[in-house]
Write a structure and sequence with these properties.
The chain is built from 4 helices and 7 strands; from the N terminus they run βααβββαβαββ. It is α+β, with helices and mostly antiparallel strands. It has a 7-stranded mixed beta sheet with strand order 1-2-3-4-5-7-6, sandwiched between helices. The two termini are 30 Å apart.
């Protein structure tokens, strides 16, 4: 099985759109204006990127990420933020998620980012814990999900 990973910043990419629609269908999110959503992803593209993984042109999974800045009255820190992450069900537990996450961590590290934040459903937490992330009780997310952090 030959896989191909592509780094994209254009969210009108057909492979990304196919995967993103499958992901939203899986989590039960209904979007009426897909074109508008993907256009907004490009418009708000302050570093918004994704790795997409395909297996012989079959959509396998993606990880979408960006840079964010946390700022206080005296300090600010530029961080990596994993926005969305999905692997097609039939490809799960085969190392593809780990590979996509590793690619993203390397991308951040190559761009002088040394801390990554993400939110995850409770049933997804173990995946991140097994890869060196820790639940961070002192940072709150607007979606009320637990925040996980990893220093790289």
């Amino acid at each position: 099985m030959t896989t191909k990973d592509l780094l994209i910043s254009d969210f009108t990419d057909p492979a990304f759109q196919t995967m993103f629609k499958k992901y939203f269908a899986e989590i039960g999110v209904n979007i009426k204006d897909w074109e508008g959503l993907f256009s907004e992803m490009n418009t708000n593209n302050g570093g918004n990127m994704a790795y997409i993984r395909q297996c012989e042109n079959e959509p396998l999974g993606f990880i979408q990420f960006t840079f964010i800045t946390l700022e206080g009255w005296f300090f600010k820190e530029r961080l990596g933020f994993i926005r969305e992450f999905w692997v097609a069900e039939k490809f799960r537990k085969q190392g593809h998620g780990t590979e996509l996450l590793s690619l993203t961590e390397k991308y951040f590290k190559d761009n002088n980012i040394h801390r990554i934040l993400l939110t995850a459903e409770e049933n997804e937490q173990q995946f991140y814990l097994n890869r060196g992330y820790a639940v961070c009780d002192y940072i709150a997310a607007k979606n009320n999900m637990a925040v996980s952090v990893k220093d790289i």
